[in-house]
Write a structure and sequence with these properties.
Blueprint: E1 5-9, H1 15-22, E2 26-32, H2 35-52, H3 56-63, H4 69-73, H5 78-81, E3 84-86, H6 94-106, E4 115-118, H7 143-154, E5 158-163, H8 174-185, E6 188-196, E7 207-215, H9 235-238, E8 249-253, H10 261-265, E9 275-279, H11 285-301, H12 363-369, H13 382-391, H14 395-411
Parallel strand pairs: 1-2, 1-4, 2-3, 4-5
Antiparallel strand pairs: 5-7, 6-7, 8-9
Helix pairs in contact: 1-14, 2-3
């Protein structure tokens, strides 16, 4: 089977791309407006290139802090370094982006684009983000049209479009109806499903809408994805990492025990003898007292702490009528609730289950809940990295989708 070329739109940290990358799909371009996320993508591209050329020691030298990012990037050939496009997808930028993609395609033995993947920003579709949405003028709501312009320009055989379940009911359902009509108008059949990441090895309850589209002139369909049955829990991804105090930073750490069967089965530890970015945010004494209350209630009653359960002396908000679940413990004996981008603002919704640590989860712990492998290195500030992780498609879900898509391509 020939190598399959794809482009990644609204790429974020390239998590949706990661599954396709692992199956040797060839990225022609990753387009992302956030500069720090683009650096994360470029560093990950360095990982894949150095792995393919048996030079992973260079990558580990970088993640260990022994060489600079500049030196790491010098190991990327021009065509690999040029596939990360730091730009907002808009009417003003499309012509330049198209030109870069066309140049990248011309350098390939096979210059045909087979696939587009991507998930436009979903804040406006999320149920929480509905308040105050300007349905006529909010450009985020029409980003599927920008997505479609790439389809019209390059005519790939298929595409994968990811978003939140709220896209179904946005604007009383009319928005999704228009989206489907638009994709069909430009020559693509589509089918959609709600997939839950927990069914594909991710230790997190995370529901996402996956739309698969294909050109009307080819035989294709939504791939059949086989759920993975297991009994692993969050403890299987926390237990080998060093305990942290609030604000503690371990940029490079040694595992304190052998990797769990979960980590081995799903290749999250990848045989590397160290991990990176085990970084905990600092907490004031007031928050830590609340965290202890939340952990104790979860341990003893298996119930969530409500804001009204907190003694008045510890409350910092006057609102006691809504958002009562502001403090939430990650279930160490089960799977996590959904990681979202708000984790970049505070850790109250993601409290570590160990009362002795009494802190919110670290960068590496959040990455593991999202199923990022330990050799996935994030660039940028702590806030930026948490946002990149919270916005990501879990790589194990991406891998399941990529396997299904590859099978469909084999039938063409």
């Amino acid at each position: 089977m020939k190598q399959l070329n794809y482009i990644d739109l609204f790429a974020g940290a390239s998590a949706l791309s990661e599954g396709f990358r692992q199956l040797k799909f060839n990225p022609v371009a990753h387009i992302e407006m956030d500069t720090e996320a683009c650096l994360t993508i470029k560093t990950r591209e360095a990982y894949h290139h150095l792995k393919d050329t048996n030079k992973l020691d260079v990558y580990y030298d970088y993640t260990s802090g022994n060489i600079t990012r500049e030196l790491l990037y010098k190991h990327l050939p021009f065509d690999k370094g040029n596939i990360v496009i730091n730009a907002e997808i808009s009417d003003a930028s499309l012509k330049k982006i198209f030109k870069t993609i066309e140049a990248n395609l011309k350098r390939l033995p096979n210059s045909e684009l087979d696939l587009i993947v991507g998930g436009p920003p979903c804040q406006a579709y999320s149920l929480i983000g509905r308040h105050g949405v300007d349905w006529e003028n909010d450009h985020r709501l029409k980003l599927y049209v920008q997505y479609g312009r790439f389809l019209k320009e390059f005519r790939p055989k298929a595409f994968v479009f990811e978003n939140v379940p709220g896209i179904y009911s946005a604007n009383n359902g009319s928005h999704f109806t228009h989206l489907k009509q638009y994709f069909r108008k430009i020559g693509y059949e589509i089918d959609d499903r709600i997939l839950n990441a927990k069914d594909y090895g991710v230790l997190q309850n995370r529901r996402r809408v996956i739309i698969v589209g294909w050109r009307k002139d080819i035989q294709f369909s939504f791939p059949e994805l086989k759920p993975i049955v297991h009994s692993f829990t969050v403890q299987d991804i926390f237990s080998d990492l060093s305990p942290l105090t609030p604000g503690q930073v371990i940029n490079k750490g040694k595992y304190i025990k052998s990797p769990s069967e979960y980590l081995k089965q799903f290749d999250l530890s990848n045989g590397v003898d160290f991990y990176t970015q085990h970084i905990s945010r600092p907490h004031n004494n007031n928050d830590r007292q609340i965290y202890k209350l939340a952990i104790k209630k979860w341990e003893k009653e298996n119930k969530r702490l409500k804001y009204t359960d907190i003694p008045e002396r510890l409350r910092t908000q006057k609102n006691t009528n809504s958002f009562l679940d502001r403090f939430k413990v990650v279930d160490g004996n089960g799977i996590s609730h959904t990681i979202v981008a708000h984790i970049s603002k505070d850790g109250h919704y993601y409290i570590h289950p160990d009362i002795n640590q009494c802190r919110s989860i670290s960068v590496r712990e959040a990455a593991r809940i999202q199923s990022f492998p330990d050799d996935f290195y994030f660039e940028g500030s702590r806030t930026s990295v948490f946002r990149q992780i919270g916005n990501a498609v879990p790589p194990l879900l991406s891998l399941a989708i990529a396997k299904g898509i590859k099978k469909q391509f084999q039938k063409i």
